[in-house]
């Protein structure tokens, strides 16, 4: 099943997402792309705050709340990041996958998710929980919700899209390579805990 989904994703990446990403990176000025990224990061503050609470992490919770207040006001609705630029409040993110890890949930089996790519059982399930914490579905209605969330994921993917193309070109079996790359990253993260 993973190989079939990987093959689908591979075609999707190479013939749609990577060309779109290249065009996006070339046509949209860096400052505009940064404003979009800042806006979406600020908008997803409820995801970070809820997971900080669930992880019993007061310091990151305070930082996320302070960043939200500063960036929503001084940063013009989150289009700019004065919380980091002027106040030194570093941008971080957390999600339900990290919350599950905090309580001892293992990675589970390796999965390739449609469009999202390499993942595992824990982080795949966490995507659903983070979806329900994201305010976009509560602020918009379909099809706008789908379009906004797709654009958010696209703008996160676009800066690194060409890396996929470069890495894929260098290997004999791209599925094995990207699976091993994901598993090594998972092991590295587990060793840090």
Short note summarizing the structure:
This protein is mostly helical.
Number of domains: 1
Strand runs, count: 2
Secondary-structure element order, as H and E? HHHHHHEEHHHHH
Strand content: under 5%
Derived from helix and strand composition plus strand pairing, the structural class reads mainly alpha
Mean pLDDT: 93
List low-pLDDT spans: none
Helix % is over 70%
Note the gap between the termini. Answer: 31 Å
- Return Rg in Å: 18 Å
Question: What coarse outline follows from CA principal-axis ratios?
Answer: globular
Number of helices: 11
Biggest sheet, strands in spatial order?
1-2
Q: Report on the biggest sheet.
A: 2 strands, antiparallel
Structure, described:
The protein has 193 residues and is mainly alpha-helical. It has one domain. Helix 1 crosses helix 10, helix 3 packs antiparallel against helix 4 and helix 6 packs across helix 7. The longest helix is centred in the N-terminal third of the chain and has 26 residues. The chain is globular.
Q: Which properties best describe this structure?
A:
single chain, 193 residues, mainly alpha, two-stranded antiparallel ribbon, 11 helices, 2 strands, 70% helix, globular
Fold topology:
Elements (H helix, E strand, L loop, with lengths): L1 H26 L2 H14 L1 H10 L3 H16 L8 H4 L10 H7 L7 E4 L3 E4 H13 L2 H4 L4 H14 L3 H9 L4 H19 L1
Antiparallel strand pairs: 1-2
Helix pairs in contact: 1-10, 3-4, 6-7
């Amino acid at each position: 099943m993973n190989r079939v989904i990987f093959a689908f994703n591979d075609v999707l990446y190479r013939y749609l997402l990577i060309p779109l990403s290249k065009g996006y990176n070339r046509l949209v000025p860096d400052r505009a792309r940064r404003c979009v990224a800042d806006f979406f990061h600020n908008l997803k503050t409820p995801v970070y705050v809820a997971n900080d609470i669930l992880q019993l992490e007061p310091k990151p919770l305070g930082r996320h709340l302070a960043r939200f207040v500063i960036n929503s006001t001084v940063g013009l609705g989150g289009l700019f990041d004065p919380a980091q630029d002027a106040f030194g409040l570093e941008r971080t993110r957390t999600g339900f996958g990290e919350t599950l890890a905090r309580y001892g949930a293992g990675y589970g089996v390796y999965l390739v998710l449609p469009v999202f790519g390499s993942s595992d059982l824990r982080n795949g399930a966490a995507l659903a929980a983070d979806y329900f914490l994201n305010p976009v579905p509560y602020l918009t209605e379909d099809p706008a919700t789908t379009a906004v969330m797709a654009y958010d994921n696209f703008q996160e993917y676009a800066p690194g899209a060409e890396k996929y193309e470069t890495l894929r070109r260098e290997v004999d079996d791209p599925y094995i390579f990207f699976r091993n790359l994901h598993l090594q990253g998972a092991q590295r993260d587990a060793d840090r805990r």
